[in-house]
Amino acid sequence: MIEDRDGEAWDGKAWDGKAWDGKAWPKRARCLVVLSLCVLLACCGAARQAIEEEAEPAAINPTPVSLNGALADCRSAFPDQIAQAEARASCVIKATELARPLLPFPELLDRENALRKALAGQVQARTMSLLERNVQIQKLHSQLLEEERSRQSAAPADAGKPPLAVAQWRQSNPESCGRLGGDSGTCY
Predict the structure, then answer these.
(1) Which residues lie below 8 Å from residue 5, measured CB to CB, with a gap of 6+?
(2) Are the C-beta atoms of residues 159 and 134 closer than 8 Å to each other?
(3) 74-132 pLDDT per residue, tens
(4) CA distances from 111 to 64, 100, 118 (A)
(5) For the chain: N or C, fewer Cβ within 10 A?
(6) Rounded to two decimals, what is the model's pTM?
């Protein structure tokens, strides 16, 4: 026999009617609802914490974007720089889009890619040589880097190291690209 809080005996089989008189049941129901909500809230909090902990390592160490790898894919997909100039330029433009959000002045990359696209049409139509195209791209790239430096010197300095893709874009198209045999991995 078990006694309830009023001291009444209960044999475990049937209530004597007092528990079902309409007063005790709503209290128990409210208690169950509050308890259920607390358990649900605790589960949601634990799930959210687990999701945030999984996301933190990715935010701390984002995967570096490699521009050189994407450009190597373009070179192997379109090996003929004259007959496939427009397709190769489109591939290069798509590859350089990886670096665009990382650049402090993405419109400079847009200008370079606009020239790249225009010159590719001329190379494929054979109205311009590949060497002339490389010289023009190299000159514009140098001008864009100089403009980027002057803008950065006027703006507050960001002491952080640039992302890999940004460094690779800045080092691309050196002066040697405008010379015969200048088709190295950094000329595109």
Answers:
(1) none
(2) no
(3) 989 999 999 999 999 999 999 999 889 888 899 999 999 999 999 999 999 999 999 99
(4) 24, 12, 11
(5) N
(6) 0.58
